[in-house]
Design a protein that fits this description.
Number of domains: 3
Number of strands: 19
Organism: Natronorubrum daqingense
GO biological process, one term: carotenoid biosynthetic process
Keywords: Carotenoid biosynthesis, Oxidoreductase
CATH architecture of the largest domain: 3-Layer(bba) Sandwich
Helix content: 25-40%
GO molecular function, one term: oxidoreductase activity
Structural class: alpha/beta
Largest sheet: 7 strands, mixed
Strand order of the largest sheet: 7-6-15-16-17-14-18
CATH topology of the largest domain: FAD/NAD(P)-binding domain
Oligomer: single chain
Protein name: Phytoene dehydrogenase
Shape: globular
Radius of gyration: 22 Å
Number of helices: 17
CATH superfamily of the largest domain: FAD/NAD(P)-binding domain
CATH class of the largest domain: Alpha Beta
């Protein structure tokens, strides 16, 4: 590996991408300092701790364990050096608003039988679908996720074209799934992972059928301490490699200086040779850089399609939650109306698809004795009007909906409650219009069509995180850190070559 010894790097933002980049650059010999706007590290993977309850505020699914294993292996470590994993059974539970309920378990034969009960031949169709998903995953990850192909000519290269042969590159997820299953509920089961990509069945490319391999074959896991425990592991690894962290230190400007950068913060300036921004891409460009150094103008960011925001209720309740699994999804019998109310006609959803997380089903440390921790997450359109009065009314609507659909009525058992919504995402994470995830994975915003890791207008400035490649989600941001570090190492080697 090329050495970055003697180079100083300031990383703005301690999300997963920033923490990953920090580890890679420190391992290459750089002097790395991570500065974070908020009071804790992890970015959107923050934790809420109060009155004996603990919640993962953002990501709560541990998927793609191979990505975490590969990340730690690059530093001669394993995930088990930092945390243990529990394989969830069921992976998740689905309630439909007409009263149907499905458990997706690690037992594929059992799941095939469930599919067969809805549609003759669907069990074998599931097996074929997962074979395709596995192939797409193995080829897509190795040749199109871990490889940062930023130019169109790289996709018409003969070797790349050979690898891509057979991948489901075109068409929508809706079209792809309809080729295997007729029953709308089975289609929904195969498409729920779009929530993690911030898209809808009609605007997400069919390539993302690879997520079903993640779900059904690789499994759904719970890490010791939740996703917050995984963040602790990244931070501890960084410290072992020499990374320094500063919390409560928001960046206010990125300025050039002779031979490097001056990063203005509310606690004074920092000088560095290189800067990596793990802050929101549009925030970095529109708020931290002067107009003449921006790679994209305001019209570009306004024209993008953003992943949903979310209405969140974090609840500490008395007693158990026997009707829920660790992960539970509630789906209307026709969920297209909810996606339309996110992407086409933004409004508060009146028949929502939503997610319930009950980590106390697996981890007794997240709630006091005799109590349970749960949260309710409803995807909503970014930029929605978000007032205390609207939140209060929607809170009541959702708790009534949960009770009617799942049988879990917690309204008279709540001992702790916190709400989080559009305005909070914008304020806490500087996210564009309060999106919870960033740029959605539409066909025009996938792969080389996402903003690049190298800043267009500033040499020595780089980006990492969900707005760039490979995209949204904890595993993708972990890989994004590696890609950003590789770009820095490549540029540094070229600039220091004889």
């Amino acid at each position: 590996m090329h050495s970055l010894a003697g180079e100083s790097v300031v990383i703005i933002g301690a999300g997963v991408g920033g923490l990953s980049t920090a580890c890679h650059l420190a391992d290459a010999g750089a002097d790395v300092r991570v500065i974070e706007k908020n009071e804790q590290l992890g970015g959107r993977a923050s934790r809420l701790e109060a009155e004996g309850f603990r919640f993962d505020m953002g990501p709560s699914w541990y998927l793609m364990p191979d990505v975490f294993e590969r990340f730690f292996a690059e530093f001669d470590r394993t995930p088990s050096d930092y945390y243990e994993l529990t394989h969830l059974d069921p992976h998740y539970r689905l309630f439909f608003t007409d009263g149907d309920r499905i458990d997706v378990t690690p037992d594929l034969e059992r799941t095939k039988a469930v599919f067969e009960s809805y549609e003759a031949g669907a069990g074998e169709a599931l097996e074929r679908y997962l074979e395709k998903s596995r192939a797409n995953y193995e080829v897509g990850m190795e040749h199109f996720v871990y490889e940062d192909r930023t130019r169109l000519r790289e996709y018409v290269d003969r070797d790349v074209a050979r690898q891509a042969r057979g991948l489901s590159l075109l068409g929508s997820m809706q079209d792809h799934v309809e080729g295997y299953f007729d029953h709308p509920k089975l289609q929904q089961v195969m498409q729920y992972t779009l929530v993690f990509l911030g898209g809808s069945p009609t605007n997400t490319p069919a390539l993302y059928n690879l997520m079903s391999h993640v779900d059904f074959n690789l499994g759904v896991w719970y890490p010791e301490g939740g996703i917050g425990g995984v963040i602790d592991a990244f931070v501890d690894l960084g410290r072992e490699l020499g990374v320094t962290y500063d919390t409560d230190r928001p960046a206010t400007a990125i300025k050039g200086r002779e031979g490097g950068f001056l990063v203005e913060t509310r606690r004074g300036p920092l000088q560095s040779d290189l800067v990596v921004s793990n802050a929101s891409y549009p925030h970095t460009e529109q708020e931290l850089l002067p107009p003449e150094r921006r790679g994209y103008d305001a019209d570009y960011w306004e024209s993008r399609t953003y992943a949903p925001s979310a209405f969140l209720l974090y609840l500490g309740v008395e007693g158990d939650l026997p009707e829920l699994a660790h992960h539970t999804l509630v789906l209307p019998t026709d969920w297209h109306g909810h996606f339309e109310q996110i992407f086409d006609d933004p409004q508060w959803p009146d028949d929502p698809a939503y997610y319930l997380c009950a980590p106390s089903k697996t981890d007794e440390t997240v709630a006091p004795d005799g109590h349970s921790a749960m949260f309710v997450l409803v995807p909503v359109a970014p930029g929605l009007e978000d007032t205390p009065e609207i939140r209060e009314a929607y809170r009541d609507t959702m708790l009534e909906h949960v009770a009617a659909t799942t049988g879990v009525d917690v309204r008279d058992r709540i001992v702790f409650e916190e709400r989080f919504c559009v305005e909070d995402f914008a304020d806490r994470y500087n996210s564009y219009e309060g999106t919870a995830l960033g740029l959605a994975h539409t066909l025009r915003q996938t792969s080389l069509f996402r903003p690049p890791h190298r800043a267009k207008g500033v040499d020595g400035l780089y980006f990492v995180g969900g707005d760039t490649t490979p995209g949204i989600g904890v595993p993708m941001c972990l890989i994004s850190g590696r890609l950003t570090a590789e770009a820095i190492l490549e540029d540094h080697a070229q600039s220091h070559s004889p």
